[in-house]
């Protein structure tokens, strides 16, 4: 089955700096890669996603890049703000699969 | 607000007991997923239903079972509870259940004493 590795497990940055979280996946059949943000005591919330026919996608301060050949994808957050502090999860899903395989999460702390 | 609702929000029970967690998917979504998140752990997929039928199974214990009803709400039953079952249980839903965005509910926090 699919295996997703996520790094780093914790990340601390100064407000205004950029943050990058990386994930690798094992199953070449995976073609949909969402990123979720989970704040304390809440459910994961989708923040951005990318499909395998696209190399990069951007939404304001958040961007995701995908390298299908190397089987890795990354989340980039620019101009970080304290409210970006949360746990971020990547996931990989196959075209005909329902089940998502999630990374173990990255705890991002943005220091004011 | 994702549109997915879960009840109850919190549940405290004793070892050996049985509990039922309930989930209502977003309007129009036919597929429901259950995940377990233990302390400082990632999201472990338990089981998926689509339009009342089981579609995929993950690391779900035999003591756990689920079903999806004709009105598309789902219930996760946890029996013979152990201390290690204490966790956050999330329900998510999606339209067709294949290769698409899942929307998560707020979760049920279960504490087994």
Largest sheet of chain B: 7 strands, mixed
Q: What is the total tally of β strands of chain B? A: 11
Q: What portion of the residues of chain A fall into strands of 2 or more residues?
A: over 45%
Largest sheet of chain A: 6 strands, mixed
* Poorly predicted segments of chain A: none
Strand content of chain B: over 45%
Description:
The complex is a heterodimer of chains A (112) and B (113). Chain A is an all-beta fold and 112 residues long. Helix content of chain A is 0%, strand content 58%. Chain A has strands spanning 4-7, 10-14, 19-25, 30-38, 45-51, 56-59, 62-67, 72-77, 86-94, 101-102, 106-111. The radius of gyration of chain A is 13 Å and the shape is globular. The mean pLDDT of chain A is 92. By secondary structure, chain B is mainly beta. Chain B is built from no helices and eleven strands. Chain B has strands spanning 5-7, 10-13, 19-24, 31-37, 44-50, 53-57, 64-68, 74-78, 87-94, 103-104, 108-112. In chain B, the strands form two sheets. In chain B, strands 2, 4, 5, 6, 9, 10 and 11 form a seven-stranded mixed β-sheet that branches. In chain B, strands 1-3-8-7 form a four-stranded antiparallel β-sheet, with no helix packed on it. In chain B, strand 4 (31-37) and strand 5 (44-50) form a beta hairpin. Chain B starts with a strand and ends with a strand. The chains are: A mainly beta (112), B mainly beta (113). Chain A binds chain B through residues 31-32, 34, 36, 42-46, 49, 89, 93-105, and chain B through 2, 4, 31, 33, 41-43, 45, 48, 50, 55-56, 58, 90, 94, 97-107.
């Amino acid at each position: 089955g699919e295996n997703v590795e996520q790094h780093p497990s914790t990340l601390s940055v100064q407000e205004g700096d950029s943050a990058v979280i990386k994930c690798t996946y094992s199953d070449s059949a995976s073609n949909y890669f969402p990123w979720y943000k989970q704040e304390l005591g809440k459910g994961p919330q989708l923040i951005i996603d990318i499909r395998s026919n696209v190399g990069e996608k951007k939404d304001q301060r958040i961007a995701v890049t995908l390298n299908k050949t190397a089987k890795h994808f990354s989340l980039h957050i620019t101009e970080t703000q304290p409210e970006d502090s949360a746990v971020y999860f990547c996931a990989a899903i196959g075209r005909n699969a329902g089940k998502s395989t999630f990374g173990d999460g990255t705890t991002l702390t943005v220091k004011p | 607000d994702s549109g997915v609702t879960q009840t109850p929000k919190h549940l405290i029970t004793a070892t050996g007991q049985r509990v039922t967690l309930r989930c209502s998917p977003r309007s129009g979504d036919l597929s429901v997923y259950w995940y377990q998140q233990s302390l400082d752990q990632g999201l472990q997929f338990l089981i998926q239903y689509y339009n009342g039928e089981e579609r995929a199974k993950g690391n779900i214990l035999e003591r756990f079972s689920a079903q999806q009803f004709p009105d598309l709400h789902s219930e996760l039953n946890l029996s013979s509870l152990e201390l290690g079952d204490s966790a956050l249980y999330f329900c998510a839903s999606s339209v067709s259940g294949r290769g698409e965005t899942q929307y998560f509910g707020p979760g049920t926090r279960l504490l087994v004493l």
